[in-house]
Specification:
By secondary structure, the protein is of the alpha+beta class. It has one domain: Gcn5-related N-acetyltransferase (GNAT) (Aminopeptidase), CATH 3.40.630.30. The protein is built from two helices and five strands, in the order ββββαβα. Strands 1-2-3-4-5 form a five-stranded mixed β-sheet. A hairpin with a 2-residue loop joins strand 3 (about 20-30) and strand 4 (about 35-45). It is globular and about 35 Å long.
Length: about 90
């Protein structure tokens, strides 16, 4: 599994690739320099239940911490992950 980040000034996407195929992604907007809005998370049906959503969440958390960003979770998955892992709520 390979993690990739695709981004520009307006936002981007955390991606997971397997065998040259993107199997999961988390889209975000970056409306201001100090925050990201998580808009959507999707895992390919063939990869459900393998923890890829958590890998994306971890990738996003690392990105937010290393870039000193706050996170606004707009997608249901990300909201639930912050509930499940309250130790990251300082990023909200």
């Amino acid at each position: 599994m390979e993690s990739r980040l695709k981004e520009d000034d307006l936002g981007g996407e955390f991606q997971l690739w397997k065998d040259e195929k993107m199997v999961a992604h988390m889209m975000f907007a970056k409306p201001l320099a100090d925050r990201i809005i998580i808009q959507h998370t999707q895992v390919d049906q063939s990869q459900k239940g393998k923890g890829l959503g958590k890998l994306l969440f971890d990738q996003m958390i690392d990105y937010a911490k290393s870039n000193d960003l706050s996170v606004i979770p707009r997608c249901n998955f990300t909201q639930k992950m912050f509930e499940r892992f309250p130790e990251y709520n300082y990023l909200l």
